[in-house]
Amino acid sequence: MKKLLALLAVGAMLLGLVGCSSTEKETPESTSEATTETTGAGETVKVGVSIYKFDDNFMTLYREEIESYFASLDDGNTYEVTIQDGKNDQAEQTNQIDNFIQQGYDVLIINLVQSTSAATVIDKCADADIPCVFINREPEEADMDSYDGQDYEGKFTYVGADARQSGKFQGELIADLEDKGDLNGDGVLQYVMVVGDPENVDAKYRTEFSISQYGEVSGNDVEKLDEQRGDWDQAKGQEIVANALVKYGDKIEAVFCNNDAMALGAAQAIEAAGRTVGKDIYLVGVDALDDAKDLVKEGKMTGTVLNDHVGQSHTAVDAAVKAVSGAKLDKYYWVDYVKVTQANVEEFLD
Ligand code: GAL
């Protein structure tokens, strides 16, 4: 973790950014205000943030970190940060963005409800000349390229982690096991896939690359027994895996979940079915939520992949601050995923 924090500090320095201090109020649509101490422009900067929905474990950690990191900045500016709940409704979120623009916000940080809405949001921000930092849900490449060579180029960016990498890491977590996950030794991994939200690139890539990487590293074949959509949700993960266990029983050797919330549900279903992770089934997730790390430590999950909400939120805030200062942004800022297993989980525990 220390290593990660050091990397983050370097990342922030590379972005060439600085900070300020703050107090905050927590409301469903929370606003934090930061006041100035040291040198700096001494400006009041209005930051509008919209999260695709508040009721998401990982994005809750992410948004809390955005708030506390803004509050910790000490660059002489005052940051007024308003964070709104997109309620998983693109129309609602678009409305919030329209309001931020009308109210003259200085910069937006947007976790889109639907990545396909990026083009509309970019156009709105470009018309108003307001910088925009997309987070967590990667827009299409064509949308990110849409202002190349124009004034708005360098005023919007995507900060995220490459979902292909998280998928590959999941595949490796299983392929690197002594038995390569192939409990029955037939040279084929029989698996169940629990998908987040098929519209989302994180879900698409994790679903695809976990399996392709498994095949590449292990040399085994794969057989998909079941693939269901769990919307990143623990209760849905539990239901899907409970049903799969009834239907396929001992045939299931591995359960891949696109995120930890669903893996936590899967772990409950596995335990309820009298199966034991590490002995007669394997289970992997992504995010490294605290509860998932505890399960990895106890051996009740085979592994997870750290989705670094601290690194991503700090990079997003640093990019927003940089854009407000008038400096050009890169088109993308990437933060690495990290594999978490029983062997190294201690490094990730607080
Ligand atoms: C993913 C994360 C999921 C969920 C999703 C929302 O990166 O792994 O848990 O938060 O983002 O878009």
CATH superfamily of the largest domain: Response regulator
Mean pLDDT across every amino acid position: 91
Share of β-strand residues: 15-25%
> Helix tally?
11
β-strand number: 14
- The CATH architecture term of the largest domain is 3-Layer(aba) Sandwich
Helix residue percentage:
40-55%
Structural class: alpha/beta
Main sheet attributes: strand count, strand direction, barrel closure = 8 strands, mixed
| Shape, per Cα inertia axes | elongated
Distance between the termini: 9 Å
What is the name of the CATH topology of the largest domain?
Rossmann fold
Which spans of ≥5 residues are poorly predicted at pLDDT below 50?
Answer: 1-30, 33-39
SSE run: HEEEHEHEHEHEHEHEHEHEHEHEE
Q: Give the strand line-up of the largest sheet.
A: 1-2-4-3-5-6-7-13
| Ligand catalogue | beta-D-galactopyranose
Instruction: State the domain count.
Output: 2
CATH class of the largest domain: Alpha Beta
Rg over CA atoms: 21 Å
